[in-house]
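Check this:
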Amino acid sequence: MTQDEDDPREEGEAPKPEEPQETRAEALKRREEDALSARLDYEKNAQAVEEKTERLRALRLTREAAEQKAAKRRAAAKPKPKVKANSKPKAGASSKLKKS
């Protein structure tokens, strides 16, 4: 007997019930592995985004602190105009109205 003779199936006959279940088990295992891989990729990308966000936030805060420091230095370096206590107001529209 050859191997073909041992197989009770004829050509075109449906496979045994055990074969589809093995295939289903393999497909289920492959889907679980794919799901695990996808979840790990998602978590890896989420971690990368979080790290990048933290890094950019630190850079932004450093830049803003430097800008505030520079603005304070510029404000301190500018001489403030002195206001005379007994100065007369300039002749403007209000003084013209009083004369009329």
User: Anything to note?
Assistant: The helical segments are 3-6, 18-77, 93-99. Residues 4 and 92 are 117 Å apart (CA to CA). The two ends are 134 Å apart (CA to CA). The chain is about 70% helix and 0% strand.
